[in-house]
Amino acid sequence: MKRPLEVEAAVDHQGRLRPQALRYRGRRYPVVSHGRRWIEGSLEHFLVMTPGGQVFELAYDRQRGQWLLLREPHHFRPPSPYA
């Protein structure tokens, strides 16, 4: 899934882009924790956590200047033993 997403971001003291908040399903979620960050082609990927422990994979397309949602919180839940 690659879906455009509204993200508030800042540049840290080392010149790196850091997501600060995102708008998901009509609601604004602040980013409380930053996880892994990597680059693949023109996409700069970020794993971020919001209050309540929701994890998102975001990507910034450096060629288009656009934020994308790649994975939503349900992609990070462990599988149910009852499935």
The number of helices is: 0
Count of discrete structural domains: 1
Instruction: Record the strand order, biggest sheet.
Output: 1-8-7-6-5
Order of helices and strands: EEEEEEEE
Query: Roughly what percent helix?
Result: under 10%
Task: Categorize the overall geometry.
Answer: globular
Low-confidence stretches: none
Strand content: over 45%
Structural class: mainly beta
Kindly report how far apart the N and C termini lie. Answer: 23 Å
Overall mean confidence score, pLDDT: 91
The major pleated sheet works out as: 5 strands, antiparallel
How big is the Rg?
13 Å
Q: Strand tally, please?
A: 8
What does this structure look like?
- The structure is a single chain.
- The protein is mainly beta and 83 residues long.
- Strand 5 and strand 6 form a beta hairpin.
Protein topology:
Blueprint: E1 3-4, E2 6-11, E3 17-24, E4 27-30, E5 33-40, E6 43-50, E7 54-61, E8 66-71
Antiparallel strand pairs: 1-8, 2-3, 3-4, 5-6, 6-7, 7-8
Short structural summary:
This protein has 83 residues and is mainly beta. 0% of the residues lie in helices and 60% in strands.
